[in-house]
Design goal:
The protein is of the alpha/beta class. Helix content is about 40%, strand content about 15%.
Length: about 400
């Protein structure tokens, strides 16, 4: 009888008092920290660093990373453009930026990345590239100041969204290409093996905003959860420690594609832009959480007024839903934590991009002043440094932070 009582006591203790695993995990509807205590994530997304976006440069139709890369190759030449991007990645996010984010009161950070930084050229697609060292640096800086980090594949092979944000060619080819699917699985498995024992990593955000609404969702949506299951199975071969984060279809908005959780460390993420900031907007996700006793996370929102931000934060937190707003830093805007000052003459770059034409005639007739353009763009690189940025204090206040 004594042994039986002891076993019952131990089982109840495990249920009532979660044991520390050293890693972030999931317990029912809660994300729990390494001590096993519930945590409400309050994070920011490091947009534009490893996934440049046109609007963060004030570009319109030059919107995706590959188009921006082509533009800069034309403006600078490939050699100087390569130097530009090396310097850009070196200075856009640094140890000082991570310290700043921590000091402002955030308890997490989301790092978007483009798969292209992690693989070599076709057909071998060797797992190599500058992305590994860059992610390693970010994770190291986060560990130094105890700022937990989510790794987010913003651009997957073939494209998961079919728009500029995934650096695709205008369609979510990922889901209908075995080669693209296999490469995505290969990259995630490699990253999971690399960070399997890294306790500052919260988890892996598998795909950002899959399947835009203007494609055939009746055909594509049923492919999403099986894809997630395949990636999850590969990750679990090398990493049983970390949370796996799954976004709904149609820009991380539609959870109807999901059945019951198929892994014991899943978090389901939704994104919300340009909606009312009221509770009815998130009821679909709350109902999903209650139905499956599952954890949810608002992984991206923002690009709105400070009043809207403040109201949405309150709406989320009243329902015990953690968040990560967007973005941390961008050019000449109050709608982010930091604003980058445009260098003198930057409107020359904006105007060229606005009228951009790939024809050699347009490039020749534009009579680009190459030395001046180089000066402007490398002055921009000086301005992206934290010490030269403007802090949008009202945006921070809207988030309830310092």
């Amino acid at each position: 009888m004594k042994i039986a009582r002891l076993i019952i006591f131990l089982l109840l203790s495990v249920q009532l008092f979660p044991q520390s695993t050293g890693f972030f995990s999931v317990k029912g509807k809660e994300i729990v920290n390494p001590e096993g205590k519930p945590v409400l994530l309050k994070g920011i997304g490091l947009g534009n660093w490893l996934v440049p976006e046109g609007y963060m440069f004030k570009f319109d139709k030059i919107s995706s990373p590959r188009l921006i890369s082509d533009l800069f190759n034309i403006l600078l030449g490939e050699v100087e453009a390569s130097k530009f991007w090396q310097k850009f990645r070196q200075d856009y996010i640094t140890r000082d930026d991570i310290n700043f984010i921590k000091e402002r009161g955030f308890n997490s950070v989301r790092v978007p990345f483009n798969y292209r930084l992690f693989v070599g050229a076709a057909p071998e697609y060797r797992l190599e590239g500058p992305g590994y060292a860059l992610l390693d640096s970010a994770v190291k800086w986060c560990r130094e100041v105890n700022l937990p980090v989510v790794l987010d594949m913003h651009c997957a092979p073939g494209g998961q969204t079919g728009d500029n944000i995934d650096d695709s060619y205008g369609y979510p080819f990922l889901f209908e290409s075995e080669e693209n699917t296999a490469l995505t699985v290969k990259i995630w498995k490699h990253l999971a093996e690399r960070y399997a024992n890294e306790k500052i990593v919260i988890g892996y955000d598998i795909l950002n905003e899959p399947i835009a609404h203007y494609f055939d969702k009746e055909k594509l949506n049923p492919l999403l959860e099986p894809f997630y299951k395949r990636v999850t199975a590969a990750i679990r071969e090398v990493d049983k420690n970390h949370i796996i984060i799954l976004g709904g279809a149609q820009w991380d908005s539609d959870f109807s594609v999901f059945g019951p959780p198929f892994d014991d460390k899943l978090v389901y993420t939704f994104h919300k832009y340009w909606t009312p900031a009221t509770r009815d907007v998130i009821m679909h996700y709350i109902e999903f959480r209650d139905k499956y006793n599952a954890a949810i996370w608002m992984g991206e929102s923002g690009e709105n007024t400070n009043e809207w931000i403040a109201e949405f934060v309150q709406t989320l937190e009243k329902d015990n839903t953690g968040w990560a707003f967007w973005p941390y830093k961008k050019l000449d805007s109050p709608r982010g934590i930091l604003s980058v000052t445009p260098p003198e003459g930057f409107e020359t770059i904006i105007n060229f991009a606005k009228n951009f034409d790939v024809s050699y005639g347009y490039i020749r007739d534009s009579k680009i002043d190459y030395p001046k353009v180089r000066e402007i763009l490398f002055n921009y690189l000086e301005n992206i440094k934290l010490k030269n940025c403007t802090v949008n204090s009202e945006y921070l206040k809207a988030l309830g932070l310092k």
